Amino acid sequence: MIQIQNLTKSYRVKGGRHYVFKNVNAVFPEGANIGIIGPNGGGKSTFLSILGGIDFPDSGRIVTNRSFSWPLGLKGGFVGHLSGRENCRMVCNLYGVSSGETKRKLEKMKALSGIGEYFEEPVKYYSSGMGSRLGFALSMSFDFDYFLIDEITSVGDAHFKALAKQAFEQKAKKSKLIMVSHNMGDIKKFCDIAVLVKNGRLEVFEDMDAAIRAYLPQTQEHAEGSAEVLKQVSLEDINIADVQLPSGQEEMIQDIFDRLDAIERKLATDGHQITSNDDEFYAQLGKAYQMLGNEDKALLFYRKAVAVNAYHLEAQQKLAALAASKGLHAEEQAALVAAEKIDPLNPATLDAKLQFLTRCRRMKEALDVSLTAIRVTPRNGGLWNQRAWLLLALGDMPKALDAQIKAVRYAPENGHYYQRLALILSSMNDLRSSMLARHKAQIIAEHTHAKPKVPPYGSIKKSLRKLDDAIRV
Amino acid sequence: MPAISKQTPWQIQRSVVFAVFIRELKARFGRYSLGFVWALLEPLVYILTFSYIRGRFTGAHMAGISPLLFFASGVLTFLLFRNIVTTSLGAVESNQGLFNYQRVKPADIVVARGLLETLVILFTAVLLFYGLYVVGYGFNWNSSLEVIGLLVCLLMLAGGLGLIGCVIGPLWPDSKVIVPMLLRPLFFISGIFFPANAIPEKFRELALWNPVLHALELMREGLFADYTSHEGSWPYLLACSALSLLSGLAVYRLFRVTVLTSGYIR
C-alpha cells in the first residue's frame, strides 16, 4: 500500500511560492497499475520524482514498504562519456548485483533495448529514442515492486512498444507500474486505476473512464452543419494532356498501386492475419493512400484503425481532417472528440478543432481554442494569423492588429499574412503602413517560386513493402 | 543479490560507494585521459622546483633529512588534504545524472572521491619514495602506527570540510572560485618547504593555529626516524579533526535535502 500523508510541495517563484501540492492525502490500493494524468505543469512529474525518492516535499511523507524504481523518463540517468554497457554496469553496482549476475543482466539489456552495437558506444552519441530505450531495458532487469515511468511510452516505434508491453506483462505478477502519460490510450492499455493530479490535489479513480471524464473539459455539442457549395469542374477545363512526367515516375506509381492492390487482396482473403499491431497497420495504409491523394481509401483505412483502437491519436486526427474535406461533419466531430480525449493539448488536435469551429462559424469558441493552441505553441505564425482573422470577424480591430503583427513576426516568409496585415491597417486608417505591408507581400510573392509537391514515392513504397510482409494469409 | 527492499543500509552504502568509486576512477583515468600522468607529475613538479631553489641556496639537510624527502612528504600530505576539499565542491554538479537513482546521495560521492584521492596519493607516494630510494635518497622508517593515525586525522579533517563543500558548492556557486583561492595561501604557510620551527618566533604562534601545519609536521615525524618535530601537536590536530568532521556532518545534515530538492533557485 502507498499512503500519502499531508504532502506539501512548493517552488519558489518571483514574488512568493507556487504550491504544487498543499496538504495532500491519498491512499493507493495494493496491486494496481496506476496511471497519473493531469494537465501540463500540474505536478505529475514532480509527484513521480517524490515517489521515486529523488525529489523531496516541503513537508508530509509517503508511507510504504514497497520498493520503487528510479523514475524512468526521457532524460535517462546516464553518464555521457561512458558507454551504454559501462553505464548499465554502474547501475548494477549501485544496486549491489554480483559480478556474475551483472554479466547475465547486461546481455539481456543489450537484447531488450535493441540498440545493437551502440551498446558499446558512449551514451552521448545516442539519439533520445535510443537513450530512453536503454533506460527502459536497464530498469526492466531489476525486480522493483513498482516501476515509475514518465512519458516513456511516447517514444519508440511500434516494435519497441510491443516489446515493452511484453516485458511489462512478464513482470506483472511481481511488479506494478506507476506511469505518467498524456496519452489516454496508453493509460487505458497499461493501468488499472487512475490518479488525477490537478489544482494541487490528488484524486484516485478506480474507474478509468470517470477519471478521463473528470480530466477533460465538457464534451462538444453537436455541430450545426455548414453547407458548402463545391464548384464542379471537369478535366477538360484544365489542359493536362501535354504535361510531361519525370522519367520513371509513371512506373513507380504503377508499382505502388500494384502493391496496394496486392495488400487489399490479401486483406480480403478469409483467415488473413496481421502480425504487427492492427491499428498501426491500418493507419499506415491510410497514410499511404492519403499521400497518394486517394482520400476515400484513406478514410476507409483510418476508420478501420480507430475501430480497432479508438485511442490511436494520429488516426483520429487524420480521420477528422479527411472527414472535414469530405463534408462529413458528424464523423469529423466524433473523431475530434475522440482525439481530444486522447490528448487535449496536442497541437494537431487543437488546430483541427479550431478549423472545425471556424467552419461552423462558432467564432467565440474558436477564439477560446485558438488561445489554448497559442499557449501550447506560442511561436506559430499560422495560429496567430487565424486568431487575427477570428478577431477581425468579431470586429475587434486593435486586438486583431496585435495578433496579425505576431503572425507576421513568427512567419515572416508568408506573403498572405502581410496582405491581411495591410487589410487591417487600412481599415484602421493607417494607409501608409498598409501600403508598406502590401508592398512587402508583393515582394515575397515575387521571390517565392511555387514548388510543386510530389508525394515521397520512395518512402511510400518502402512502407508498403513492410505492410505487405506483415500480413499472413 | 538480495531483493532490493531487503538490503541493509550497510549493503546499500557499500554498493553505492563502490559504484561511484568505479565511475570516478573511469572519469579520471579513462582511456583517453592523462589522469595518471598528472597524478604523478603535479607533486613531482613541486618537489623538483622547491629542491632546485633550495639546493642552489643552501644544499644542506633540512631538520635532519634530505630536502627531497622533506618536500615529497610535505607536498603529498598537503595535496591529499587540498584535493579532497576542492573536489567535493563539484561533487554534486558533475554527478547530476547519478542522483536519478534514489540511493545515491552527495555524501557518497564525497566518500568515493576521498577514497580515490587517498589511493592515488598512496600509490604516488610509494612510487615516489621508491624512486628516491633508487637514486640514493633512502630513509629510516619510523612508526607505521603514527602514519596511519595521521592519515585518519587528515581524512577526518578534509572529509569534514568536504561534506560542507559538497552542499556549499551547488548552493553557492561562487564558492568554487573562492575556496580554492582561500586554500592557495595555505600552500605556503602549511610547512611544505620549511619546518615549523624555522618560522620566525613572532609569527610561529599564529602559524600554529593551522592544523594542516601540525599534520605535516607529525607526518614527517611518523615517516622519518631522523626527523623530530618540535611543534606538531597530536591533541590539537585530533581536536581540529574531530571538530571538522562533526561540523561537516552537521552542515551536511542540514542542507543535504535542499541540495537535491528541485524547489530552490540556483
Architecture overview:
With 473 residues, chain A is α/β, with parallel strands linked by helices. Chain A has two domains: 2-215, P-loop containing nucleotide triphosphate hydrolases (Rossmann fold, 3-Layer(aba) Sandwich); 248-447, Serine Threonine Protein Phosphatase 5, Tetratricopeptide repeat (Alpha Horseshoe). Chain A has helices spanning 44-51, 84-94, 99-113, 128-140, 158-171, 184-190, 208-215, 249-268, 278-292, 295-308, 313-326, 329-342, 347-359, 363-376, 381-393, 397-410, 415-427, 431-447, 457-470; strands at residues 2-13, 16-28, 34-37, 59-63, 146-150, 176-180, 193-198, 201-205, 273-274, 471-472. In chain A, helix 3 (99-113) crosses helix 4 (128-140), helix 10 (295-308) runs antiparallel to helix 11 and helix 16 (397-410) packs antiparallel against helix 17. The longest helix of chain A has 20 residues, at 249-268. Chain B is mainly alpha-helical and 266 residues long. Chain B has one domain. Chain B is globular. Chain B starts with 8 loop residues before the first helix and ends in a 6-residue tail after the last helix. The model of chain B has no long low-confidence stretch (mean pLDDT 88). Chain A binds chain B through residues 9-12, 46, 49, 52-56, 58, 65-68, 70-71, 76-82, 86, 90-91, 93-98, 101, 142-145, and chain B through 1-5, 7, 11-12, 14-16, 18-19, 22-23, 26-27, 30, 97-104, 257, 260-265.
Compute the number of helices of chain B: 9
Mean pLDDT of chain A: 80
Shape of chain A: globular
CATH topology of the largest domain in chain A: Rossmann fold
User: Segments of chain A where pLDDT lies below 50 for 5+ residues?
Assistant: 217-234
Largest sheet of chain B: none
Share of helical residues of chain A: 40-55%
Computed over alpha carbons, the radius of gyration of chain A is 26 Å
Report, as a whole number of angstroms, the end-to-end distance of chain B.
38 Å
Kindly state the mean pLDDT of chain B as a whole number? 88
Largest interface: A-B, 39 and 33 residues
> What is the class of the largest domain in chain A in the CATH system?
Alpha Beta
Q: What structural category do the secondary elements of chain B indicate?
A: mainly alpha
Low-confidence stretches of chain B: none
- Strand fraction of chain B equals under 5%
Number of domains of chain A: 2
Gross morphology of chain B = globular
> What would CATH call the homologous superfamily of the largest domain in chain A?
P-loop containing nucleotide triphosphate hydrolases
Radius of gyration of chain B: 20 Å
